[in-house]
Amino acid sequence: MSIGRRSLIVGMAGIGGGLGAARPDQHYEPPAGGQAIPGPRAVVRARTVIIFGTGPTAGLFAYSPTPGPNKLIASITGQGGTDPYGNATLAGVTNYQVISGTGTAVQLATAGVNFYRSAAALSGPWVPLGSIIDGQWQEPTGVNGLNLQVGTGAAQFQIATNGSQITETVPLSQTANVNAPVLSVENFFSGPSQAAVAITSQTAGDRSLSVKVAGDTNARCQMQSTGTLDFGSGSAAPDTHIYRSGVHTLASATTAFDKGLGVAETWQVPTFANGWANAASGANLQYRLLSAPFNTMQWVGRVVVPVGFAAGQGINVAVPSNYQPVHPQPVLAVNLTNGGLVRFQMGTGGVLLYESGATVAGDIIDIQCGAAIVSLDA
Predict the structure, then answer these.
(1) DSSP string spanning 86-129?
(2) Which CATH code of 3.30.70.1520, 2.60.40.1830, 3.40.50.620, 3.30.230.10 fits the domain covering 277-375?
């Protein structure tokens, strides 16, 4: 009986183990127990890589520089959870980074691209920042505020969620004077039904928009959700306010003007001093700010001269500071009892002072509208 050469070679290989181990690309099943492919290989080439199974650890996980906690840089897995090193993973194709101890993740999912942040590096939990779906940015459910801050470094989007606040820095900055705004919003549609920038607050009186100078501790100008504008120095709380007090009417503290019709402020009632009082007939003594001429006020009314009056005597308690002139202003009046001219003076302290006139106690003096307009800044 003769033995062929081919059969002899095969037999010798089987007996002496002459053939080497199968190459990695010749394995149809992975090594048992998740063993690593032996040898210090820097590059592995294959025509097809099949990863299968269920659970959070079934998938592809990439690490840098070595596998371990907070070293995960990418994952492809059908189920989110935790990898073998304690990194919190997200389902789908996901990229991970750790910046100054804060984890970020960008997830490619079925609906779109999702963005996440974790305060505890890659150990989670992942908090959603938002998503890009069909080319549009969408905020996650539960977001109740979005604030854009533009500073000397970079712009910050602050997103307040139910129970936490996330600050996302985006590259919106101006490092050189390029004679252009840091942020510009342009609506390419004519006559839109909605505003180009819309701010919706949850409660009336919430701060909706504020303006500061670098180093300020308070806003110099801020808008409330009611539409009220607050103004201040920047070093203290706002002290000046403009708001809507009625139809066509803007008000500020004790002043109010009808912007649409140009009507002056409603009349204010002073408190008398030193025995002066209203006359029995005619208009009572009153004052108001005027819409025109600019920065002026007006007195009107009839008063009775008291016993013991004297030159330089005040007839009222001081009016508020926004009715007080920078310098003393003359106010003319007529003595209705004898027809003589009477002189008053509006002092810088807000008191109307009696100056002179052919007057005796009991005379009725009429402070005339046209002659009693006081400039507040002259």
Answers:
(1) S-EE-SEEEEEEEETTEEEEEEE-SSSEEEEEETTGGGS--EEE
(2) 2.60.40.1830
